[in-house]
């Protein structure tokens, strides 16, 4: 995500939240649908190279405004900037531990 210039990359640790659907969420955003799609493609490629694992489920590829890549234990959310602000996913999981990463 950093190499493809994903903005405001954050990891939410959900392991201690009883109702969580995954262990971790990784979230970032980009200013265009082209960049959102490029980020999603890069994440898929890098995870496959490192772990030989493909997403269990993918959503949002047709619109490129919010792409979700579900690797079961880790769910990656890649938003277009305005959609990230609108949905405020970090706020929905306010009890999660957050770790921020510098953008490239």
Helix/strand layout:
Blueprint: E1 7-13, E2 24-30, H1 33-51, E3 57-59, E4 66-70, E5 74-80, H2 81-87, H3 89-92, E6 97-101
Parallel strand pairs: 2-5
Antiparallel strand pairs: 1-2, 1-6, 3-4, 4-5
Describe this structure as you would to a colleague.
The chain is α+β, with helices and mostly antiparallel strands. Helix content is 29%, strand content 33%. The chain is built from three helices and six strands. The protein has helices at 33-51, 81-87, 89-92; strands at 7-13, 24-30, 57-59, 66-70, 74-80, 97-101. Strands 3-4-5-2-1-6 form a six-stranded mixed β-sheet. A hairpin with a 6-residue loop joins strand 3 and strand 4. It is globular and about 35 Å long.
Number of helices: 3
Major sheet? 6 strands, mixed
Spans of at least 5 consecutive residues whose pLDDT stays below 50 are none
Structural class: alpha+beta
User: Rg from C-alpha positions?
Assistant: 13 Å
Helix content: 25-40%
Shape: globular
Number of DSSP-assigned strands:
6
Distance between the termini: 8 Å
Strand content: 25-35%
- Order the strands across the largest sheet as they lie in space: 3-4-5-2-1-6
Task: Give a brief outline of the structure.
The chain contains 3 helices and 6 strands. The protein has helices spanning 33-51, 81-87, 89-92; strands at residues 7-13, 24-30, 57-59, 66-70, 74-80, 97-101.
